[in-house]
Structure formats: structure tokens, C-alpha cells
Amino acid sequence: MTRPGRLRRPAAVSVAAVRIDVLMQTAVEMSNALLDGLNPQQREAVLYRGQALLIVAGAGSGKTSVLTRRIAGLLETREAYPSQILAITFTNKAAAEMRERVRALVGNVAEGMWISTFHSACVRILRREAEQFGYSRNFTIYDSGDSRALLKRIIKDREADVLGFTVSSTANKISKLKNELADVESYARTVNHGDPSDSMFLEIFRDYSRALSSANAFDFDDLIAQTVYLFRAFPHIAAMYQKRFRHILVDEYQDTNHAQYALIRELTKEPAERDPGLISAVDGASLTVVGDSDQSIYAFRGADIRNIVEFERDFTGAKVILLEQNYRSTQNILTAANSVIANNFDRKDKKLWTSVGDGDKIVGYTGYSGHDEAQFVADEIQTLHEKGMAYKDIAVFYRTNSQTRALEEIFIRSALPYRIVGGTKFYERAEIKDVMAYLIAVANPADTLAVRRILNTPKRGIGPATETQLANFAEKNQMSFRDSLRFAGELGLGPKVTRAISELSNLLDEASVLAEPPAEGDAASDGVPEVLGLLISRSGYLDALRRSQDPQDEARAENVEELLSVTKEYQRNNPTGTLIDFLTEVSLVAAADELDDSSGTVSLMTLHTAKGLEYDAVFLTGIEEDLLPHRMSAGEPGGPAEERRLFYVGITRARKRLFLSLAMTRAQYGDVSVAMPSRYLQEIPGELIDWKQSPGMATSRGGTQPRALNARRDGYGGAYSVPGNRGGSSYGSQGGAQNGAQKPKTEWSNRVTGQMRDNGDLVLAAGDRIRHTDFGDGKVLGVTGEGAKRIAEVQFESAGRKRLLIKVAPLEKLDADGNPVSAASTAHDAAEGDQTDPRVDEFEPS
DNA sequence: TAGTGGATAGTTTTT
DNA sequence: CTATCCACTA
After folding, report:
1. Is the pLDDT of residue A249 over 90?
2. Is pTM beyond 0.70 here?
């Protein structure tokens, strides 16, 4: 498909003429394919043409649809070439989805568009222009872990810890400054030099910036800020991009920070007149932003809600379109969401509505403990699944990552397939970071942090003393730390150490030869996997893991091999991708990017990660004071309001079913504390919630009438205290099990990730009687599955029917008299000792 | 230099 | 509770 010549630049005059002409055809051409099924507001959002457009898109109002059709429309009417479009999304996954949907609408024309996250777009620009400002294009990207490692060294070197500097506080402060586009010089001007703590921070900030630039590296925040600096310092470079991108679209605009805002401003500026061929000035690019201030949940990270609130004032003549009709959820869910968010003052009133009807009621549940709550979630999921809902359409959300423990444990026992999205990410594991450091040392030898990391990993007898000597040598001779390795012989070290250093240095050299991109015309190399393979085998890293006695190292070795297959997969998909390209991609993956829709598992994630996703059934867990309005948010201005938005985001992820759960007591840091229902629960109209067990019921176990939660705040205040045992710390230290008769549960083995209980040899058949630690006695109805995945379906006398993964469930087989068959035959007793003492069932009314 | 054991400190959300 | 740090010993 060739493009019409008439659209070609340079004369802007003629472009303007064409635009009108195109616009007239637009409505006609687009009405068929692209406007189908849109409501009037959506249609307007697709069709509007002007310099600035704000689409205020409530949750589930079809904004992705609008955005993709808007882009497709620009392409279809030939108002823009693909290369003139820049679309910014929040995650790579969203970017991929958007590209896919545009492709579905207009075909392969979509190829040349830039659809990416802020960070990827900036990396792309920075790599292209790096040489202009003292970096080289193979710079590496420091993730927050790398930044912290660097700061740790600096704080230690400066002995700043005695002044109360911690890594995390310093990292946060630097990040904040960078998000405000402050650099060392500008910050220095505002500093009170009389204050020792102030000037110390300045020194740290300066050291940190120097270290980054001498390592030829950027941290996350730099990627944005440095791009802005680049544009400001080099107007001709800015002009290039300003002329190139004619249409800029930004999704999730409410979560942009100041630096990102400034970047958008730079990109939409009228290009400075530089091009002699141009008769008159080119307009600034047209800007479309989509967002919802009610879903702003990243203020803690510098997101500035004013960017969207003041958009109209900011871009004069901006058009605002409001999308309120929701295509995702039932009315009950929306009413709950509306009533919660209405409690945030200073917001523009906006009410989501739908035409699909009320739907099911929201289900509420109050557990006695976090594990009870988790059991409720697992049971409900099982029921949903039996009624035909696929696991992949179900999600469980929580506020903090630590809440996954109880959920995971119960899910494993219940044989529920689940997946944790985010959390400790694959690429954050120590062994992966080690191996990545090898790759970085090859791709960017200036990155001293990476070189230091691998220097003695695996152990080669190079200790801190040797490392310091190398560093001194490097400094004295004005060379990089990497290069100092080449001169190991001149340091007068022992022969063993000298040889170890030289071998490492040679290995890196060899690898970098291998990493060279293939010469012009050569068949594509399979460079990245080859380089990685060489590094992990010759360095001895993989062997060291395999030889290790530590059982966890086996899993680590597997992870390293997994990374090797990741590189192979990467190279298959990107035959011309270089090592640096691979490293970039890895640095910029977000939690939600790991989601795989076809996985067939329940998804567990934090509320933050959940933004932008949707599921048929959603479980919001831990709706408690100090957890949902999180304790840490109380002090911050705007904190509680942001927490409410977080709750709102969670509610609006649900299509059909919404479950709200909480616990009366929650185990945290080893001891148990009392939890109160979240204030936000009362903001939902009582008639929308069907309490299976309300906070009122949960205290008075005997089964009184459900007490409406929403009735009165003080209604449950006093009822919440846990009987007995408020005495404090003696609790955990006594080893717990004998306290089992008391209500709050004692403790559970939290060994989910480590070795599990293992009933591997336990044979069960239909008709057998068993005793379960939590559910009491029951009868086996049937056994399905093979080997380690054998699942028993058990009818318990009082706890109902459950599915249990035999291998790991805390159960014993009983003989005809109701006694455990034999302690020895069930492996877990012998293996685990005190953790598995049978306890009184915490869930049962006693 | 490596490995161990005891003490201690930190506990929100993440591109 | 857990992860990390530090000091001490082999």
C-alpha cells in the first residue's frame, strides 16, 4: 500500500489544506468500521481533531477502544503516517495490546508507530542521542536494587549512616528530586550549607550522580529526566522529534509525574525554526491524554494529579470529553464504587453507570484470621470454578505483598492453580542479577557496579582487600575498574588470585568478541544465548550452584537455565537484537507484563498491579484499618484519599462478581494483632453486600443474626477485642500449639516456599477416613490426579466438602477406631516436628 | 579468604 | 518473623 504523495512534507501550508480535505472525508470513511458500536461520547473522542484533547475515562468506559480507534482513524484517513504517532502506555503489556488492536483494525500499516511506555520511549531516544552528551549508546539501566546497592556503598564510604541516613530514605529523596527535574547543581543552590545533614545529602547526591555517569548508566528516573535535559540543551534534536511526532497520545495521564509532564510539553512544542526548506513554522503535535483522577494511585512515587486536573488551564483551547458509561461491571459493583469514591472531596463528580443490570450482590466475609479469610477465598473460587468460571478469569487482590503468605498456603493445600503477579520478580533474584551482571560487564565495561558484583561470584578467592587494591590501581592510573583487571600481574598479589583475575578478564574479553553484532550481510547471529552460555559455564557459576550442598541452589541453577532459555526465546523473536537490546528489555519489564492470559491460573496481585486489568470475579482481601487505609498513609497529606482510590480501583476491576473479605486478627511479623474493619466498608450501601459472615457475626460465634456492618461505627468497635491473651509477647515465644484451645490461632509454618510437608507416600482411596488439622475428621469421596498432584475430595463432618492436594495437606489417615493409622507412615510428622502438631481447629465453633 | 553464628534492624504501594 | 550485617574462627 503506497502512501499518497500529496501528504509528503515539506510545505506546511499545503498540509493545512490537506487536513481540512481529509477531515471532511473522515466522518464518512470512519463511520463504518471504526465507529461501530460506540456511544456518542466515545464517537466524539475518536473523531475530534484539535491541538489538545482530554478524555476523562471512568473505569471500564472503553477507553482502550477509543484510543485504538482514534489511532486507527488517523492512519486510515491518511492524516498521519504510522511513524508520526507516539502512544504512551503504562506497561509494556498495555502497549502490546494496543498495537495488536490497532493492527486488527488497519492491518500491518501499524508497524512504524511508537507505542511504548515512557521509559522505553526515552531509552530509545537516549540511545540514539547518547553521544551528544557524554554517554555512549551502550549505557546500562540501573533498577532500584542497583541504585540502592550503589547508595549503600556511598553512604558507607561517607559514614553518613551516623547522621541517620538510610539507603531507602536517600533513594526516595533522590528519586523525588529527579522527578521534579532537579539535578545536583540546581539542588545545591537551595541547600542550607550550615546544616550538616543537608550538605551531607548533597555530597551523597553528587557522588551518586558521578558514579552513575562514570558507569555509563542511568537509573529509572534519569531515563525521563535526562531526555528532558537533552531536549532543552539541544533544540535541534528536540526539533527533530517535535516534527516527527504529529500525534501524541498518553494513557493513564493521572499517573504522570512532573518530569513526564515536562517531556510531553517538550514534545508538543512548536519546533524551533531550523529547517531552511520549511516555509513556515510547523504546529506543535496534537496531544490526546486519557485518564481518570479517581484512579490516581501513584502519588507516593511522584505522580502529580494536577497534571490532569489542570489540563484545561494548561493547554488552552483543550477539549474535554467525559466517558461515564461503563461496559465492564454490573450496576451493583458500580454503585458500590461510586459511593466509595464520592467520599473524596475536591473531585469532579462523575458517576459510572451501565445498562447491563444489577447483577449479583457483593459477597462479604469476615474471617477469624488471615488463614480463615484465605480459606473462604479458596472455597469461593472452587465454587465459581465448579459453576464454570475459568481460573484465569478470577483474581485476588491485596494491599501488601506480605498478605500472599496465607493465601498461598491455603491455595497450595486446596490444589488451586494460582499465580502471583509481581512480588519478587524473576529478574530480581540474586542468581539472575549475578548472571545479568556478567552480561552487563560485557556490554558496558564502564559499569563498575556490575564488574564488582561478579568479581568474586562464584567464589574465586578474590576478597575485599584485593578489590580495594584493584580500585586504587584503577584510580591511580586513570582507568576503569574493568581495565584494572588486565593488570593483575602488576599488583604483587598471590599467584592464585592473580590467575583468577586474569581468567575472569580474559573471559569477559572473549565474550565481548562473541557479542559483536554480525558483520553486514552475515546471517543473523544467535549472539545473546551464546554469550550467556559461555559466561555461565566458563565462569564456573552454574557448576558452583549445581555442586552446592544448599538445596535452594538447585532451584537457583534452574533459574539460571531458565534465563538461558529466555535469551534464546528473545533471539528467536528479535533476530537482530543485540546484547544491549536484551538488557534494556529486561530492565523495563513491569509486574503486569508477566501476566499470561492463557495461563489457566488464578491471579494474585497487589491493588497497584491490578490497575488497568479486569476479571470476571475479583476478591479484595484484607479490607481492614491499617491495611487498606494503610498505616503508613495516615500521616501523609492526601494519604487516606489515595487509599480510597486504591479501593475504588480494586472494586472497578470486577466484571460480574465482587468479594470483599477481611479478618479479625492478622498475623504480622510473628505475632498476632487485632484488626478492625476498614472505614471504607461503611461507605458501601449495606443492601449491596450479602455478608456470609459479617464483622458482627464473627465475634459472637454462636450464630446470631447478621449484624449490618454499615449500621453504626461504634456498633462493632468494642466487639472486636479478642478473648484472652492480650497480654502480649509471651504468646509467640511459647511455641503456641498448646494454646490451641484459644480463639486466635497461634502460628503456621510459613514454609510455603521452602520445603513443604510431604505426604508423598500416603495412599488414600474413596471411603477412607482422615483427620485434617484445620477441618477435623472427614471421609474421602474420591481421589483424582497422578503422583504428586493427587487430589482427594473429602467430605468433612463439619467443614463441608473440600479438595485437598494430598501431598501437602496437613492430614492423617484414620483407622476404624478413629485413631491415626501410624505416625511413621505419614512422612510429615517425622520431617517437620513441632509445626505440625494437631491443633484445635481455629475455624470451628468450639 | 571463607564460612559460620549471633545480633540487629526493618517492615507500602513500583515504572 | 526474616533478611542482612558484622565479627570471629578455621
Report:
1. yes
2. yes
